[in-house]
Amino acid sequence: xxxxxxVGGTGYTGVxxxxxxxxxxxxxxxxxxxxxxxxxxxxxxxxxxxGFVDLAFSDPESSDLNRCDLVFFATPNxxxxxxxxxxxxxxxxxxxLAADFRISDVQEWEKWYGMSHASPELVAQxxxxxxxxxxxAIRSARLVANPGCYPTAVQLGxxxxxxxxxxELDSLIADCKSGVSGAGRKAEVHTLFxxxxxxxxxxxxxxxxxxxxxxxGLSRVAGQSVGLTFVPHLTPxxxxxxxxxxxxxxxxxxxxxxxxxxxxxxACVDVLPKGSHPETRSVRGANVCRMAVHRPQAxxxxxxLSVIDNLVKGAAGQAIQNMNLMFGLPESQGLRQxxxxx
Amino acid sequence: xxxxxxVGGTGYTGVxxxxxxxxxxxxxxxxxxxxxxxxxxxxxxxxxxxGFVDLAFSDPESSDLNRCDLVFFATPNxxxxxxxxxxxxxxxxxxxLAADFRISDVQEWEKWYGMSHASPELVAQxxxxxxxxxxxAIRSARLVANPGCYPTAVQLGxxxxxxxxxxELDSLIADCKSGVSGAGRKAEVHTLFxxxxxxxxxxxxxxxxxxxxxxxGLSRVAGQSVGLTFVPHLTPxxxxxxxxxxxxxxxxxxxxxxxxxxxxxxACVDVLPKGSHPETRSVRGANVCRMAVHRPQAxxxxxxLSVIDNLVKGAAGQAIQNMNLMFGLPESQGLRQxxxxx
Amino acid sequence: xxxxxxVGGTGYTGVxxxxxxxxxxxxxxxxxxxxxxxxxxxxxxxxxxxGFVDLAFSDPESSDLNRCDLVFFATPNxxxxxxxxxxxxxxxxxxxLAADFRISDVQEWEKWYGMSHASPELVAQxxxxxxxxxxxAIRSARLVANPGCYPTAVQLGxxxxxxxxxxELDSLIADCKSGVSGAGRKAEVHTLFxxxxxxxxxxxxxxxxxxxxxxxGLSRVAGQSVGLTFVPHLTPxxxxxxxxxxxxxxxxxxxxxxxxxxxxxxACVDVLPKGSHPETRSVRGANVCRMAVHRPQAxxxxxxLSVIDNLVKGAAGQAIQNMNLMFGLPESQGLRQxxxxx
Amino acid sequence: xxxxxxVGGTGYTGVxxxxxxxxxxxxxxxxxxxxxxxxxxxxxxxxxxxGFVDLAFSDPESSDLNRCDLVFFATPNxxxxxxxxxxxxxxxxxxxLAADFRISDVQEWEKWYGMSHASPELVAQxxxxxxxxxxxAIRSARLVANPGCYPTAVQLGxxxxxxxxxxELDSLIADCKSGVSGAGRKAEVHTLFxxxxxxxxxxxxxxxxxxxxxxxGLSRVAGQSVGLTFVPHLTPxxxxxxxxxxxxxxxxxxxxxxxxxxxxxxACVDVLPKGSHPETRSVRGANVCRMAVHRPQAxxxxxxLSVIDNLVKGAAGQAIQNMNLMFGLPESQGLRQxxxxx
Lengths: 342, 342, 342, 342
Known about the structure:
Order of helices and strands of chain A: EHEHEHEHHEHEHEHEHEEHEEEH
Structural class of chain A: alpha/beta
Oligomer: homotetramer
Shape of chain A: globular
Low-confidence stretches of chain A: none
Mean pLDDT of chain A: 97
Number of strands of chain A: 13
C-alpha cells in the first residue's frame, strides 16, 4: 500500500482526492492536513464522507508527512513551493495540484502569479503531469506539477491536430466554459449562488493565468511557439469544463480518423463518434476527457469540443492518474467511476 | 453471478440501476429492454456509460428475460402488473420499481392510480421492499414492491418515534421537497428547465399517490391507523428528497438516543449528531438515508429531517439492497458509493 | 417629490430599492451611501443600473442625509440603531430594513441578535411595518421597522385564520423555504454556488432570529401567546420564499371564503382560487404575496401556501409600500411590476 | 392607442410580449389567441399576470384580428407564412417573431426549415427587423421579420467591425451560449430540468438555422459574402444569450472608440467601458444589448462579448422596438425596464 498524505484538505480538490482515493485499493491515506481546521474530523466538514473516513484534519507541522510515500498538495498557489523541498529531501514524492511548478519560465510564472518563486531550482526538476503527453517522464518523476483544469481540456483537444501538423499555429482559439467549483471553496462575492446562478459571463479576456500554461504545453508539442486566444467563461454549473476549440486547417485530413488513432491507447480520453456533442454531465465525477471533432460546412475551420470534470480529470483524478504512473500501477486504477447522470 | 434483466431502461431509474449494478461485482446484466429504443446501444443514449456497457436496448419480447434470475421493472406504473406473472411462473424473481404492488388494498390502489389492476392476486404475494422494516420477508420474497421515493424518506424518519410509541398518531405532518428527476425522464412542460428552474412550489396538496403508501406503512408499524398530512414540493434540484417531519410528543424521551439505537444496525441509514441538518448533497449518488432529530425550544413538537437521493435510496439503490437480501448477499454490496460533493 | 436616501446600498436590498424607486415617479433619490465603496458609481457595481442611475456611492458622513425626507437603512443589523436617532431628530423619517426595531422586547432582541441595543428608547416608538396589519400606525410613523422576509410570508398566511379564531394556537407550524439571496450579498462559504446549488437543507431548527418576530406578530393579532414551530430551509433559488403553514382547525369554516374576504381590499396580497399552488416565480420581482388555502382530505389540518419575493414584498418593495403610506401616496404606487416569468 | 393582437400566446415569447405591452402605455391588447387553450384565462396559465390581464385565450378564427392595427405572431415556424397574407390584405401590419420571413432566399429557407414556403411573394416585402441596421425600412414596413435571438447578439456585436472594414471577412467565429428558454415552452426531453440543469453542451455544430440568417445579415452590411463558423451551446440559464465573437484584424484601430462611436445614438445598445465583461443577468428582463470589445495581448484577434436577454432584445422586446418604429413612437417606449438583478 502506498502511504499518502494530503496537504490542504478543506477545499474541493482535497475532498475530491479523498473520495477517489477511498476507492483506489492501493493506497493508505495517513494524513489530511489543515492549519485552520486541525482537530476537526474530516467527515464533520464533509458529511458525504461519514462512514468512510475516520481521520481528523491534522496540523501540517505535526503530521509526519515525511513518512508518506507521496504527498498531494491541494493548497492555494504558493504553498507547495515552500514545503515541497523538505519532503523531497526526505524521499517523499510530491504532486502539486496548484500552479507552483507548472511554468518552466520562472519569470513568466512570477509575472502571472504575482509572487516570487520560493524554489526556482525545483521548477526545473518538476514534470508537467499531463499523462497523455508525458507518461514516460511522469513514471520516474519525484515532483509532478498537476496541470490546470482549462489547460487539460484545451491541450487534449488540440494535441492530435498539432502533432499531425495540419493546422495554422498562429491563431488558435480556445473558448472555454467552467463550472463554479473551479473557483474553489473560498468565500468570495462573485461566486455566491445569487451572483453566479442564472448568469453567464466571460472573465479574464485580457489575460488569464492558464494562458501561459496552455501556450507552453502546445508550443512544446508543436516544436515552435503557438499563438493562442483564450477566453474563459463562468457558467452556472457546479462541475464541468467545456472547451470549444477553433483552428484553421492547412491541409485536408480525415479528422475523425486522426482523433481516434491518436487516442486509441489513451486510458482516460474518449473520442466520440462523428457528429457528436459531448455534454459535461457525461463526465461528472469521472476521470475522462470526452471530445468530438467537427468541420462545419466542410470549411477551413476545425472545431473541437472537449469536456472534463474540472475536479477530476481537471484536478484530483488526474493527480491520481499521475500517482499510478509514478508507482507502476495501472494508469486508471481507482479511476473507473461511472459518471453520475442525471 | 446473478443474471439480471432490466425492463424499461431508458428512464432515470433504469440508467441508475445500470450505473450501480456495474460496480456490484455479483451480477451479470444480460438485458435492458425498451420497446421504443430497441436496437440502440445503451451507451449511445447515455454517454456516461460509454466504455462500461456494450449492450443495446432489446425488445422485451425477444429478450429472453425468462432466463434471468431477477428482473427489475423500471417502467411506468401499470406495466409490471401485466408482465410479472409469466416471469414469476418461469421462476424469475421480480422487483418492481413502480407502484403496481405497493398498496395492499387493490381498490385503494385503483382509486389513486386510475386504472384496473391486472394482477390483484399478485399484490397479496408481493413484499413491500423497505429493508429497514421488512428484511426478513424480503429475503424469501419472489416479488418485491420497491417503495416510492417520498415514502422511503418519510417512513424511515417516523419509524423510531412510532415504534417507541412516543407521539400522537392522529396528526403527523410530512412536508417533503423533491428534486425534479423524481418526475422521471418524460417530455412534459412543467418539468422543463425554464419552468422548474429558479422556482419552488407545492403540488398535490389535496392528495398525492404516495399518501396511501406512507399511511399504509406507518399504520402497519403502529398497529393502528395513523393520520397524516403530506405536502410534496418541487425544488430546483436534479436529485434529492428532503423530508421535514412533524409530530407531537406525548411523552418525554431521549430523542437522539432513540434514533441512534433504532438504526444502530442499519446498513443504509445514518443518524447525524444532535443539532445537525442533513443536506441532500451529502447523499448524492449514494444509497443512504441521513437524518437528524430536533425538539425546538424543548417543546412538544418533534422535528425530523430526513434526506435521500430519490434515484438511489429512493429507487435504484434500494432495489439493489432488496436484491442483495433476496440472494443472500451482504445488504450493502455494491452500495458503498461515496456521495459526490460538491 | 420625496427626497430619499439609502444607507448601505451595496447589498441586495439596496440595489432592489434603487430598481423599484427608479419607477416610482414620486421620489428623488439623493444619496446612496457605502463606507467601503464611496466614490464608485453605483452603476459600475451594478451594471443592470447603467443608463438609469448617475449617482456614486457616497460616504455616510458626507452625504447630508439630514436633508432627506426619508432614509432607508439597507444595512446589516446593528447599524440603524446607532444612526437613526440623529436623523429622526433632524425631522427625517426612517425605515429600517434590518432587524433593529422589529422586536419590542429589547432583552429578547439582545438575546437573539447577540448585541446590546444602542437605542432601546426608539424601539418603543418604532412601528412594525406590515401594512396588511398596521396601515394606520404606519401612516403616522416616524420610524418603521420593516418586517423580515420569513415573517412577512408567515404572518400574512396565518392572519385570516387567527383573526377568525378558527385554529388551535398552541401548535402552529411554519415550514419555510428561502432562496439564497435571503442570506445577503456577503462573502461566505455556505452560500457559494457549489455549496448551495443542487442542494437543499434545513437550518436553524433549534432557533432562528425570525422566530420571535413571527411569534410577536401573531400573538398581537391573536391577543394571546401563540406556540410556533418554525423551520427554515435553504433552496437553490435566487429569489423567493415559499411558506407552507400548518394549523389545526377547531371549527368548521369556509376557508376559501375566509381568505378572499380577509384580503379583498389588500393591494399587495392575492388569494388564489381554490385548489391552487402558488409558485415563487409568479411573484418574481413583484410586491405581492400570493397564497392558497387547503384542507387535505377534509381533515382537521389546514395548509396554507404563501409565496413572496424575499427581496420585494420581503424587503425593498414592502419598504416602499410603507413609504407610500407614510407620505400619503397610493399604497401600491411604483409597485405594479409584472413578475418576470420565466 | 394601437390595437394589438397576439397569435400564439402560450409560449415564452407570447407571455413576454404581454408583460412588456402591459407597461407600454400606447397599446391596447385586444386578443391573444391559442387554438389549443381557447377559453382559458391568460392569467390562469400564467399566474404572474394575475391582476394585470383579464383576457382569455381566444380561437384564432373568432378573434377578429382583422380589426387590429398590428398583429404579432408568437407562433412556431410555418404559421405566419400561412396567415399573414389575409391580415396584410385587411390593412393590418404584421410582426413575425418566428423565422418565416427572415431569409430572403426562399430555397435556402426551405432547406434549413424543412418545409415549403407558403407565401414566397411576401418574403420579398418583409423587412428584416434589426432596428440598429434597418430603422428606416422598418418605419414604413407592413410586414417585419423579427430577428432570431442568436442573430441579434451576433450581428450587433460584429457590426462596427464590418462597417469599419477592419477585419478579415472569411473566417469570423461566433461562439454562442443560450439559456434554455430559447428552446421554447414545448415538452421535450432534452430541455427537462434534469437534462439541461448542471450541464453544458454544444449543439448543431454542423449547421444551425440561425447560421444562414446571420450570414445574410453580415454579408449585406459587408457588401460581400462573409465566412462564419457558428457554434451554439446550451447553458443552464433560464434567460440570456452570451455571444463571444472572434475576428482577425487587418488594420490597427481604436476598437473602444469605434464601438462607442458606432452605437452612440443607439437606444438599445450599451457599449461597456474598456476591459469590461458583460454578464447576462445585467440585461435580464430588459431590451438592451450590452457589449465589450477586447484585443487580448494586443494581438491580431479581436474578441467581442455581446449579451442580450433572448426573450427581450432577442424576441419580444425587439418586436416592440420594431412596433414603435412602425407607428412613429419613440424607439424605446415601454422598453425602459430596469434589469432584475440578482
